[in-house]
Design goal:
- The structure is a single chain.
- With 110 residues, the chain is an alpha/beta fold.
- The chain has a single domain, classed as Transcription Regulator spoIIAA (2-Layer Sandwich).
- The protein has four helices and five strands; from the N terminus they run E-E-H-E-H-E-H-E-H.
- Helix 1 links the parallel strand 2 and strand 3.
- Helix 1 runs parallel beside helix 2.
- The longest helix has 16 residues.
Amino acid sequence: MKIQIQEDEKATIVVLAGELDGRTAPQVEEKLMAVIKPGCKLLLEMSGVSYMSSAGLRILLLLYRQITGQNGQVVLVGLQELLRDTMSITGFLDFFEDYESISEGLMALN
């Protein structure tokens, strides 16, 4: 799993690529939790995520709860169709806004 973190003037952009599963989840969780601060705005660019297990879904839910609990916002960008379907069926898209492009996601955060 590749994780790139970029600070934009409006938000923190995290680009994920690879498989988000039980093996990679601890690394992803550690990196993502480190960027959370009160009022943070986080954009997760996930077009490079080819697979996500329940461990990945758990991290997203934890991330959502931490960020919204601190009056922040999180959006997802570039979900592949299979991931979007899985997240929709499991109800995860009820928690997250998802967008096609980084520019759309950044506009939604501001």
